[in-house]
Amino acid sequence: MRAPFDGAVAGVTASAPHAMIRTPRANAAAKAKPAGRTRRQEKAEQVRLALFDAAARVVGKHGYAGASVARITTLAGVAQGTFYNYFASRQDLLDQLLPAMGEEMLAHIAAEVRGERDEVAREERRFRAFFGFLQKRPAFLRILNEAEVYAPRGFRAHFANIAAEYRRALERAHERGALPGFADDEIEPLVFLLMAARSYTSLRYAQGPAGRVKAPPESLIRAYVKLLRHGLAGGTAGP
Amino acid sequence: MRAPFDGAVAGVTASAPHAMIRTPRANAAAKAKPAGRTRRQEKAEQVRLALFDAAARVVGKHGYAGASVARITTLAGVAQGTFYNYFASRQDLLDQLLPAMGEEMLAHIAAEVRGERDEVAREERRFRAFFGFLQKRPAFLRILNEAEVYAPRGFRAHFANIAAEYRRALERAHERGALPGFADDEIEPLVFLLMAARSYTSLRYAQGPAGRVKAPPESLIRAYVKLLRHGLAGGTAGP
Amino acid sequence: MRAPFDGAVAGVTASAPHAMIRTPRANAAAKAKPAGRTRRQEKAEQVRLALFDAAARVVGKHGYAGASVARITTLAGVAQGTFYNYFASRQDLLDQLLPAMGEEMLAHIAAEVRGERDEVAREERRFRAFFGFLQKRPAFLRILNEAEVYAPRGFRAHFANIAAEYRRALERAHERGALPGFADDEIEPLVFLLMAARSYTSLRYAQGPAGRVKAPPESLIRAYVKLLRHGLAGGTAGP
Amino acid sequence: MRAPFDGAVAGVTASAPHAMIRTPRANAAAKAKPAGRTRRQEKAEQVRLALFDAAARVVGKHGYAGASVARITTLAGVAQGTFYNYFASRQDLLDQLLPAMGEEMLAHIAAEVRGERDEVAREERRFRAFFGFLQKRPAFLRILNEAEVYAPRGFRAHFANIAAEYRRALERAHERGALPGFADDEIEPLVFLLMAARSYTSLRYAQGPAGRVKAPPESLIRAYVKLLRHGLAGGTAGP
DNA sequence: AATGAATGAGAGTTCATTCAT
DNA sequence: AATGAATGAACTCTCATTCAT
Asked: Which among A109, B48, B109, D156 has the fewest CB atoms less than 10 Å away?
């Protein structure tokens, strides 16, 4: 709700699909008093969050290549050494960035799609929600973009998350008979084709100057919907 | 046929759509004796080519991040300092890599599409030809992938090249009435959606272990063609 | 018999020849109630012992260089900060390690020598007992080895201990007329020459792979005894 | 002859038992003009020597642990990066230090021993020459001492060198009948016992304050000679 | 007395670029 | 035009020690 990541990190912790997330706190947790978190734990969590948040901002602004530990810790307001109390390495944090924000994105999109029955309309909502999320979290665009190269482990985790979610959605649609012409082994390719549309066009249309993020033009959404509804024929007969 | 890039580089030099490509050679060319190239010029061109070729191989194998000037010059068999007689900076060469290979790719695809009239069938041919090219030039997949992050200028130049070519094709199709449902301002989005499909799926399907490049599965191509032909409905009525 | 050092440390405390050994406990000891140790004191002594024992194990396995406070406290099962309640610094503990084990070694050797009257035979027993001790306490070999460089104060203390003991033995032998050719001022050099033999050959012959400790070959002991009995002539006339 | 290492390094290069010695120059050497060294090569050799010399001084003064690349390069008057043009790593240089000086030591000792026939007298000369060398190269004492722990590869190389040399000498003596009481398999132990005497006593007697090196007392040498000549009996009958 | 997170100086190493030869 | 050694800033990471809780 407020600073980036408050929600995102909580989301990750909740669903916890990231074996790589591990902080010093983890050990101490075992000895924790049953009655709620201690002050120390709270403070530690704050620092962790501050580092996470700082990393997201720094990557958003300078890219992964420019995300030095020095920059991140300075922005977070802690000493460089402190970083290594929370993350095993620079790469460790970098690899957690995308999956964490990805969870948040998924939640954001899911909320927008709820209620719509028609599959193309659902996809249109997802598409719009994706772009909406980019505006809510401008850093995400760059993080998403560069992660494949700079944080491949994190990228793969995120990719698997998103693809699994998408696949579930398309498989349900398939069962409902909403994708009549497609065979079972064509669902996965379809997943990637839809992810491609979203991801690739965001690079062209959302990326503004100086890290700014723009809303996508309606013509893009119209073209996408037509393609999904009728293919390249685009709906000859008109709506 | 033989070493990568002999053709590619020639192609670039020929069509020269890259404002950023400018080397010390350019100056020398101005002074060239009218009667053909001197020995010196030929030798220089050879060195330039060797550096280019070495860079492509190195990036293909080690990625842009691992493409140090030392590695490139060692592979090319020249001293490190020599590099800067031909390229303004490491980045300069890196930015020329993708546009050069992109020209070659364009030529390869154009040759495969020739003769086909149906627009969906043409796109299928392009799609197949793209994957075919990846197998011919395995290094291209990695270069294409990483360029956006490591050689953004080069990536943009390449992207503009490809998009322009695509746009021309789709606009001709549009004029022929092959994209009946689409408005003028939806052609460009369509271009990006088709590029997205090609580019994004290549990452998922073509990337084999250890830099190997695989052929795409037929299910992917079937799904793509169905999507183009009928949208998500996928051709309920059958072909 | 059980955890290393129970005895060793007790020994140190008993004979206390180490001016440098002084821990927070020492203060507490002053305030001790006359009637035996309190629970608190016992607990504290346990922690001290645990740290000591952990340090010996860590140095035995990872060497002094790898004996970080973090590793030692983790193995001892206490927090890092606790360390500084018992030792003034990392170096302080490290410097106590060798003298403590050295006392144990001395006791071990003394027990083996008892009863033998011939001086060369006594030295042979010491020599064998030294190697025997190494096998009983494998960590000692590494500690002894590295202490000179990493814990020079501790090394000097240990060295002085051993040399003093040795000197006492040789002086008694001298008085008995067992070292007929040597002048008074040659006793000390002799001490160092005997210590040299023991210490140096242990590095060559006892050190096995992966911290394992081997028994010395009999040929070494034969050569040593011959040297002591007859010099380089080695006993031409037979024994 | 002048600055430390001029000779030492040459010595190493000559007998070259150190597979680990490798500098960038090695490549270039292949292309070298036949007619003598170029200026560049000479300069490079100078820098290499300067680094070597600086390293020896630094280790002599601050120990291996204090021999940071920064200190070494500062003393040598070159930039830190330059270091890595000559040595693969800090450890690489550190491992070369002892073998290089060891060769010089060997030469020094050999020169002193020449001419003497009696084996004990030869060993006395070696012993004296060893201490003499320590005074000529004060840094050597510390380097020798710490190498086992900080530069184990270098130490092993040096140790093997010295032991081989010694062994050759003792085997020749053995063949001459100079070590009448010793069996073949006792020669090696003898080698180590003599090396022990030299090495260990140097720590006790040569080490002065502040890296100063003292001459050994005559009593040490007398004791040593007596031990070698008659064993612990020390020559009852007198000379 | 025990905790353990925070600190920050300092380590080794890399590499694009320069420039005297 | 070619060389390749020199440069030095920048990087990630370690760890003994401190100190508020």
From this structure: D156
Q: Which of B225, B233, B87, B222 is nearest to B151 (CA)?
A: B87
Token pair 């669903």 is found at: A15
**Measured CA C69 to C1' E1 distance, in angstroms:** 18
| DSSP per position, chain B | --STTHHHHHHHHHH---TT---HHHHHHHT--SSS--HHHHHHHHHHHHHHHHHHHHHHHHTTTT--HHHHHHHHTS-HHHHHHH-SSHHHHHHHHHHHHHHHHHHHHHHHHTT--SHHHHHHHHHHHHHHHHHH-HHHHHHHHHHHHH-HHHHHHHHHHHHHHHHHHHHHHHHTTSSTT--GGGHHHHHHHHHHHHHHHHHHHTB-GGG-BPPPPHHHHHHHHHHHHHGGG--TT--
Tens-digit pLDDT string for chain A (239 aa) = 334 444 333 333 333 333 333 344 444 434 434 445 677 788 888 999 999 999 999 999 999 999 999 999 999 999 999 999 999 999 999 999 999 999 999 999 999 999 998 999 999 999 999 999 999 999 999 999 999 999 999 999 999 999 999 999 999 999 999 999 999 999 999 999 999 999 999 988 998 887 789 999 999 999 999 999 999 887 664 44
Does residue A235 come out as left (phi exceeding 0), alpha (psi in the -120 to 50 range) or beta? left
Rounded-to-integer distance, Cα B26 and Cα B8, Å: 18
The tally of CA atoms less than 13 A away on the side-chain side of residue B65 is 9
Residue D191 near residue D160, CB atoms below 8 Å: no
What tens digit of pLDDT does each residue of B45-58 get?
Answer: 899 999 999 999 99
Nearest to D234 among C63, C182, C233 (CB): C182
What pLDDT, in 10s, does the model give residues D73-99? 999 999 999 999 999 999 999 999 999
Q: Which two tokens stand for residue C234?
A: 């080695």
The secondary structure of chain C in percent helix, strand, coil, rounded to multiples of 5, reads: 75, 0, 25
CA distances from B130 to B110, B155, B196, D75, D139 (A): 10, 17, 12, 59, 67
Q: How far apart are alpha carbons B60 and A23 in whole angstroms?
A: 36
Q: Domain D96-233's class? A: mainly alpha
Run of H or E including D147 = helix D138-150
Nearest-Cα residue of chain C relative to residue D62: C149
Closest CA to B138 of B186, B90, B105: B105
In chain C, what are the domain boundaries?
Answer: 6-92, 98-233
- CATH architecture assigned to B95-233: Orthogonal Bundle (1.10)
Tell me the three state secondary structure of residue C9: helix
- The CATH architecture annotation of domain A98-233 reads Orthogonal Bundle (1.10)
Backbone angles phi, psi at D213, to 5 degrees: -120, 130
Measure, in angstroms, how far nucleotide F8 C1' is from residue B81 CA: 18
From residue B228, give the alpha-carbon distance in Å to each of A170, B120, D228: 18, 7, 97
Evaluate whether B72 touches B131 at the Cβ level (below 8 Å).
Answer: no
Amino acid identity, position C10: A
Homologous superfamily assigned to A6-92: Homeodomain-like (1.10.10.60)
Interface of A with B in 61-80 (CB under 8 A): 63-65
Q: Give C-chain residues touching D177 at CB under 8 angstroms.
A: none
C192 and D186 within 8 Å at the Cβ level: the answer is no
Sort out which chain B residues have CB atoms less than 8 A from A149's CB and list them. Answer: 63, 65, 145-146, 149-150
| CB-proximal positions of chain E, under 7 Å | 1-21
**What is the C-alpha to C-alpha distance for residues A159 and B201, in angstroms, rounded to an integer?**
13
Interchain CB distance below 8 Å, C189 and D220: yes
Q: Where are the strands (E) in chain A, listed by range?
A: none
